[in-house]
Please model this.
Amino acid sequence: MRSSDELFDRAQRVIPGGVNSPVRAYRAVGGTPPFIASGSGSTVTDVDGNDYLDYVQSWGAMILGHAHPRVVEAVAAAAGRGSSFGASTPGEVELAERLCAAVPSIEKVRLVSSGTEATMSAVRLARGFTGRAKVLKFAGCYHGHADGLLARAGSGVATFGLPASPGVTPAQAADTIVAAFNDLDAVTAAFAAAGDEIACVIVEPVAANMGVVPPAVGFLEGLRKQTDAAGALLIFDEVITGFRLGLGGAQARFGIEPDLTCLGKIIGGGLPVGAFGGRADVMSALAPDGPVYQAGTLSGNPLAVAAGLVTLDILAQDPPYARLEQLAASLCEGLLAGAQAAGVPVTVNREGSLFSVFFSDEPVADYDAASRQNTNRFATLHRGMLRRGVMLPPSAFEGWFLGVAHTEEDVERTIEVAGEAFGESARAS
Ligand code: PMP
Model:
């Protein structure tokens, strides 16, 4: 028996579904998930000694690749100085300064330990600041697993086809309004119906949890205008796009400043960090300056901050974004050509280095269109590529992640392998 099979058996006895985060269970693609023993650069190695070229990259967090020597060194040095004090440390100030300097709309920022905490806290702050209750979100966008944000969510909620989640109270659900991504008319209608009750609009400026769906021209501008007109706050959830689409994230790429921004993943260099920040007047409503409460024993944890700081340093010293975008563009071109050669219709969406492949013969601009893709064909592609040593995200409702450790040779090999695997997908119904 393979070690991964054995571990998964043991895991299923003591961990629900055998995993600590649902999509990792591989239910959408079939098979036993490989347990990872180690990673280096663009490659991960499982406990049975199989190497995989990795396009999960911890869901985007590992933009520098696995076990980058400078990150490893920084974390080891920080651990030697003590791993948590429950008191402030110098690195937190430095990381906050870096975030304020890099991200256009952030004047003040608070560090937390996950993306979920960042979005949950930003929404509470928006409610406290405006004195309003309702939140407008978009179908297929995922903002972590806080109660009010799970309605028609992307990521695992989409993967498993759940409309929402039991355990979310009717009151929480009633305070969440859901519109279609890229549909400004639906936003206009929501504001017309409940404008003075809406505290905030929260959006992934490039949706990356229903597969990747870029914003239509004018969509983000429209959200900025409508929130301004209604006195609601605009929250960009840049947990994925932050430091991935550029040092200033999606807001710098598209030239739109939200009131609040949520960050995660890359800013922690692979350790648990999130952050939310924005307008100084809004952030000042947080305790201890203001009445909106938010806190965390491990917030600004010294190991996580050390990993984040060195990651942001490396990205700032030698910004990899033009190269990453070029790599992603060649990969997308190659994937499209491979699918066409195999006679299987696909739509490839890309924004910068963020991209995904939908088994669909129509453009994908929102969650309804993403839901019409052929997920069986994706599952076949995933299995075919895994067998050939390429690890894709184990769901059709996720983005694919490239990092600075990926090379042109990696991309060429992926295109070659995909060409073979698309042939298998074409035969799946
Ligand atoms: N927001 C977005 C856009 C995300 O992609 C995610 C996680 N993939 C989250 C929030 C939640 O982050 P975490 O899993 O760290 O709680």
